Structures are given as structure tokens and as C-alpha cells.
Amino acid sequence: MEMKRIFFLLLITFSFLSNAQAVSEPKNNPAEWSKPYEPFKIAGNLYYVGTYDLASYLIVTDKGNILINTGLADSLPMIKNNIKQLGFNYKDIKILTLTQAHFDHMGAMADFKKETGAKLYVDEKDAEELKSGGKSDYELGKYGVTFKPVQPDFLLKNNDKIKLGNTTLTLLHHPGHTKGSCSFLFETKDKDQTYKILIANLPSIIIDRKFSDITSYQSIQKDYAETFEAMKKIDFDLWVASHASQFDLHKKRKTGDPYNPKLFMDKENYFKRLKDLENNYLKKIKEDSTKK
Ligand SMILES: [Zn+2]
Questions:
Q1: What is the CA radius of gyration of the chain?
Q2: How far is the CA of 233 from the centre of ligand 1 (A)?
Q3: What confidence tens digit (pLDDT) does each residue in 177-201 have?
Q4: Model confidence pLDDT, tens digit, residues 241-258
Q5: How far apart are CA 82 and CA 17, in angstroms?
Q6: Cα(206) to centroid of ligand 1, in Å?
Q7: Positions of E strands within 113-259
Q8: From the CA of 103, how far away is ligand 1's center (Å)?
Q9: Domain extents in the chain
Q10: DSSP codes joined into one string, 9-60
Q11: Considering the domain 28-290 in this protein, what is its CATH number?
Q12: Between the chain's N and C termini, which has fewer beta carbons within 10 Å?
């Protein structure tokens, strides 16, 4: 090979290597994140298929299935196994989506997409974080690339719909925790009744720095405020969240318990959680104002 050509090949090799950064998922996570949990039917066509604490939701439709959130990288075999245990095939997943672009909900997303060929629908404000493997995140970006980067297929805004077969999810833009954090609202029914389900991404705060010091996310304080207002107004019958601990899954349900959608019909707990988070937010604003 002539020198020029060799030089050119070296050049592409090096630029490829410098772009392809290794994924380093943060370690020392709570043990509950990687602990298996039995999959179960929540209500109608909604199933819990996540780990003990990292919630993943499978929505089964007559035209294939939707998977929301994928836990850590090592959750992949657990979620696949949970789907199988329920009698479904993970290859029937046609749509993938998420509640927030953090590694504990995105770890296995790239692999699920590759293995199923499903389309990834995301809140448009989290698209950069997904493409950078979390490196562009205003806070967790300090850990570098924390999950395998993944390319979104469809970018959604507040109130946009995700439709598959007999199910339509409405995306609710609830930014703050990440720029594109979101919740989902949809209707499902079983033989007894119809339920309006909220899959909530609760707006917890993950920074010690002042809001005004977050230069890569200047609207963060305002976004939280808008999210609290929006989340107070949601009308639903039954709710779950991004983490099992956030909706007290293990207090409500014990291993082997039979199907019972009523376990998740505790709206008062949702509003109480939200109020507590809002109080944290208001306290932080006060503290920020006294800091230099
Ligand atoms: Zn998070």
C-alpha cells in the first residue's frame, strides 16, 4: 500500500478510537437495583418486568409490545427472563421508550434495540444524553459515558402520542431530574373495568450545587417548578414510577400475591410524595439564595 493510503487508514482508525469511548457504568449501586424480582401483571395489559427496584414496564398489545425502561446493563437477562416467565417473547417488543436518560434506566437499552429492532421513542430533550451515553448530562456527565449510546428514532414533545395496536400512550414532559424526563398516561382494561394509568417520573433533585451554577441546563429551576405544577393536575386511577421504592411496590405487594390492580390505586401517596419533593425543591431554592 502506498504511504498516503496507509496514513489515511491510520487517521480514520484513530479518530474512530477517540470517538468510541468505553462505557463505564457507576459501581456501588444499591443491591436492590440488581436483585431479581418476579414479574407480574399490574393491570390490564400492563406488566412489571423490572428488577427488585429498577422498574421496567411491558405493555402488551395486539400488534406487539412496548417496553419502558431497561435498568442497568446487567438487567438485560433478568428483564428478558421476566418477559419469558409471563409467557411473552421479548422479540415481540416493537417500541422502546424511557422515563429518564440515566444509566439506571438505560443500561440495557442499546442491546434491547439491537436484539429486537424496535423503534426508540424519546422525549426530544433527552435525545442528546441518549446519543452521548449520558456524557452530556448536566450532573452524571461527570462520570463520562455511563451507558451504551443509542440513537432515538422518534423525538416527542409534551402530549405527543405513542400508538401501538389497541394502546395509546400520552407522553407528559416532566423535566428537571433530566432535561427530558417524562411520564406516561394511558388507558387499559380488564374484564371488570377500565383504568387510567400513570407511569410517573418523580422530580427528585440530584445536585448539591446551586441551580444557577448548572450552566449546561439553565432552565433547570424553572423546569422543576413547571413539572410540580403539571404533576399536581394529572387525573388517573392507578400509578407506578421509575423506581419500585418510589411507589412502595414491596409494601403493597408480596411475592406470589394474586392479580390486584387496587394495590396501585393509592392516589394520596402519589400526592404526598410529590409534596415532599416539592418541599425539598423549595428548601433548596432558599439555601441557594444564602450561598455565595
Ligand atoms: Zn435518575
A1: 20
A2: 23
A3: 999 999 999 999 999 999 999 999 9
A4: 999 999 999 999 999 999
A5: 36
A6: 8
A7: 119-123, 154-156, 161-164, 167-173, 182-189, 194-200, 238-241
A8: 8
A9: 28-290
A10: HHHHHHHHHHHSPPP-------HHHHS----EEEETTEEE-S-SSB--EEEE
A11: 3.60.15.10
A12: C
